[in-house]
Amino acid sequence: MTKKKVERVERRRPHVGLNLVGEAKTRSAAASKGCASLLSRLLIDAAILVLLVLGLS
Amino acid sequence: MGGTMRSGAVPVPESAWNAGKVLDPNAVGQAIKQLLARTEIVQTHAHVAVSDAVATFRVLDLENAASDQQVSAAVAKELALDPERFATRWVDVGEEDDRRTVYAAAWDRTTMKSISDAVRAAGLDPVVVELKSAALARTVSDRSCIVLDLVSNPAEIVIIDRHLPQLWHGFELKTPISEGLEEALATQLLSAIRFFKRRRDTSLRPTSPLLVASEQTLPGQLLNDLSDLVGHPARALAAPSRVPASVRHSTYLTCLGLMMRRDQ
Question: pTM of the entire structure?
Answer without folding.
Answer: 0.84
